[in-house]
Amino acid sequence: MFSIPDYIYDILNHLEKNGFEAYIVGGCVRDFFLSKTPHDFDITTNALPEEIKKCLDEYSKTDYGEKHGTVAVIAGGHSVEITTYRIDGKYTDSRHPDNVFFTSSLNEDLKRRDFTINSMAVNKEGILTDPFNGKNDLGNGIIRTVGNAHDRFSEDALRILRAIRFSSQLGFRIENETSMAVHSLKYLIKNISMERIREEFIKIVTGKNSEKVLREYADVIAVFIPEIKASFGFRQYSPYHKYDVWEHTIHAVSAAAEIKKVKIAMFFHDISKPECFKMDENGRGHFKGHAQKSALKAVEILKRLKFSHNDINDIVYIISHHSDELNTKAEIKMLLNQIGEENFFNLLDVQRADSMSKQDFCRERLKKTDVQEKTAIKIIENKECYRLKDLAVNGNDLIKLGLKNEQIGLMLNKVLNEIINEKLENSKEFITKYIISTI
Q: Most CB atoms closer than 10 Å: which of 195, 225, 324, 352?
């Protein structure tokens, strides 16, 4: 049943032939039962750290968490963590145990883990140890804590987000008592670093079950993104919309392409709608300028969540342009120039998801989006000019024509604009004549 890689089997065998127990444990076992290929393998054993190192003397080792019972060895080109069975001490910071105690009991070690589906262990013969019925929960699609949910989440608040993340990624239901604890202890999330929150948030939003999770656990996400609260139940009074702002956002995230930046952009694309709302004399809602304001708010939140500078720029580009109407080839070229090819196609995916999450008649716009995509692909394939580097002239050519300093940049952009709008041919001869006529 289990196809354990040779390099992992060898480590397990080394420990066993020296008289110790050894098991693969946690996520890799879960993935085996889900018919997924694990990318990381964790091993647990009753051997103490010094005994692990002695048994695996031939392996290179890295300086890792030995004080917590973990020895990391390099095997098969991978770093493999081997941890002594342990019992965790108190968690005074709601994140890490103050101390750990080694134990000779595998069950005691499995008892300290987060969820039943992550508390299964398998030896090199493929024999399963499953004291908390994780396999049964896995088969029934249930996320359940090992033991008391309140205790597990109080020990490590990151588990709250991990529960939601597993539900989103795997499409599993969070068991009732576990779910109640997620809601009641959500305030503990504030004890987690923003970097860890960011990584869990990305996995939540990009998960296949994101629609259900965002709806059921909006209050939990609002702990670290309180700006979304204004969207909850905010009626749009628009003939184009059948959902309130938050429900529209949920549907848009779910409909979006499986691309991280697209999913994140959809989450934030309408976040400033409530503050932009105006109702006209006919009782229709309008949100003038909401794209730009949502982009500005997204910058603040993404910085707070420690997203990379590049990710922030790309996501914000998409949000700020998500309401753009591209009616001509020149407009498509101009936007390709402004935000780049990757962001342009991500933008089209955002606009598709936006259309899919409105009234049914709005889906007619999908045809226009398809035309825009085909036009952009043709522009790129035909190597048509839409960037400064595509011009048939460069700065040196303009210097020869007598232009200096800031004049060069201004003229190159002016020429590019003329070419994009098909008022000038992109050839050195025609561009040179044009420049001479304007200086």
A: 352
Asked whether residue 1 is domain-assigned, the answer is no
Whether residues 136 and 177 share a domain: the answer is no
Three-state secondary-structure class, residue 232: coil
Q: Which of 318, 357, 358 is nearest to 338 (CA)?
A: 318
Q: Are 133 and 145 in contact (CB under 8 A)?
A: no
DSSP label of 115: B
Q: Looking at the structure, do residues 128 and 154 belong to the same domain, yes or no?
A: no
Residue 37 token pair: 């290929």
Q: What gap in Å lies between CA 67 and CA 358, rounded to an integer?
A: 55
Does 157 share its domain with 134? no
Is the domain of 190 the same as that of 136? no
**The domain boundary residue, chosen from 111, 140, 169:** 140
Beta bridge partners, 285, equal 279
In terms of residue numbers, what domain contains 185? 147-217
**Cross-strand pairs, 128:** 122
What are the tens digits of pLDDT across the range 332-389?
A: 999 999 999 999 999 999 999 999 999 999 999 999 999 999 999 999 999 999 999 9
* DSSP codes, 386-407: -SGGGSS--HHHHHHTT--THH
Token code pair at residue 292: 């730009």
Residue type at 331? Answer: E
Say whether both 45 and 25 belong to one domain.
yes
How many Å apart are CA 415 and CA 359, to the nearest integer? Answer: 42
Using CA atoms in the order 289, 293, 298, 300, what is the torsion angle rounded to 10 degrees? 170
pTM: 0.91
Nearest-angstrom CA–CA distance, 348 and 370: 8
| β-pair partners for 145 | 115
